[in-house]
């Protein structure tokens, strides 16, 4: 049986570990609630913006005198794929990143990556995969950071450095479930198809935008408004995917830290029992020695 000193040292270390993981669980829990509210609350806005853009594009398509085109809408031959890998900046979130990396396609020369998060950058560097850029992302997902990422991706797409853009990220389902997905981002899919895919992607029923029979006057012109809507839809889609990823990350970290705390407490209970048994055995041996010595003297 192990000595008292060794058992006490290990028991003290395990209890300190449980305190640390418990504190990390509480911190992640406070961040998780905020991230979940942003992710779930943004789904309706994302659907409304997509439906509004889709309806305006359909109206422009009906009028043959107005031909609308936008670089983010036109499909072309795919010679080089662009993939945005959205990972975490820190670890201690269970198998979240490992499950995400398994979604990566086989290594090809026609794929270029953009890493959002340090873990994704490290993984791509270890596999010697082509990396266009790397962006950090704070826990509160500020929109100005997302805008810089979106502008970089849009410019690379317009310059024909990449012919399509896909996002590999984790979608928040609930606190215990996070789903890695590969989502097409560019070219934007509209005219009904993209709206239905977006609704299916969310995996939940959202209210359909009601029909408005009234006629509208669009200023300065439908084309100008449409260009602004396409740009906004692209940025908002990427922004919402990052919100979903952050909600999934914080949820996974809460579960991982709770599991670590429970395991540490279980080990501490076992060590405490072992310590008490060792102490009881030592006391019994001392009583036996005293009794034997007393009997020998008599």
| Count of DSSP-assigned helices | 6
Q: What is the CATH third-level topology name of the largest domain?
A: Pyruvate Kinase, Chain: A, domain 1
Percentage of residues in DSSP E strands: 5-15%
> Within the largest sheet, what's the order of strands?
3-2-1-4-5
Quote the distance from N terminus to C terminus.
33 Å
**Most strands sheet:** 5 strands, mixed
Q: What structural category do the secondary elements indicate?
A: alpha/beta
Low-pLDDT sequence parts: none
Shape category: elongated
Helix percentage range:
55-70%
Write the element-wise H/E pattern from the N-terminal end onward: HEHEHEHEEHH
Mean pLDDT: 79
CATH class annotation of the largest domain = Alpha Beta
Instruction: Output the CATH homologous superfamily of the largest domain.
Output: ATP synthase, F1 complex, gamma subunit
The total number of structural domains is: 2
Please identify, by name, the CATH architecture of the largest domain: 3-Layer(aba) Sandwich
The Cα radius of gyration reads 29 Å
How many DSSP E strands?
5
């Amino acid at each position: 049986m192990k000595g008292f000193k060794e058992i006490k040292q290990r028991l003290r270390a395990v209890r300190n570990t449980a305190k640390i993981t418990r504190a990390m669980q509480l911190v992640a829990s406070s961040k998780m609630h905020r991230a979940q509210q942003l992710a779930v609350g943004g789904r309706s806005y994302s659907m409304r913006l997509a439906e509004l853009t889709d309806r305006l594009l359909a109206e422009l398509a009906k009028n043959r005198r107005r031909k609308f085109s936008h670089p983010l809408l036109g499909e072309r031959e795919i010679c080089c794929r662009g993939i945005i890998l959205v990972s975490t900046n820190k670890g201690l979130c269970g198998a979240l990143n490992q499950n995400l990396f398994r979604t990566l396609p086989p290594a090809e020369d026609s794929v270029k990556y953009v890493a959002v998060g340090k873990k994704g950058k490290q993984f791509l560097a270890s596999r010697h995969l082509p990396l266009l850029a790397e962006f950090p992302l704070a826990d509160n997902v500020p929109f100005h950071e997302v805008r810089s990422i979106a502008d970089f991706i849009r410019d690379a797409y317009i310059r024909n450095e990449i012919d399509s853009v896909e996002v590999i990220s984790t979608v928040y389902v609930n606190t215990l479930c996070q789903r890695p997905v590969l989502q097409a981002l560019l070219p934007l899919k509209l005219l009904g198809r993209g709206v239905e895919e977006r609704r299916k992607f969310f995996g939940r029923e959202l209210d359909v935008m009601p029909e408005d029979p009234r006629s509208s006057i669009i200023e300065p012109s439908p084309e100008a408004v449409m260009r602004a809507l396409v740009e906004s839809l692209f940025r908002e889609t990427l922004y919402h995917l990052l919100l979903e990823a952050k909600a999934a990350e914080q949820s996974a970290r809460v579960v991982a830290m709770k599991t670590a705390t429970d395991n540490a407490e279980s080990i501490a209970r076992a060590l405490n029992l072992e310590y008490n048994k060792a102490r009881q055995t030592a006391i019994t041996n001392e009583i036996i020695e005293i009794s034997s010595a007393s009997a020998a003297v008599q």
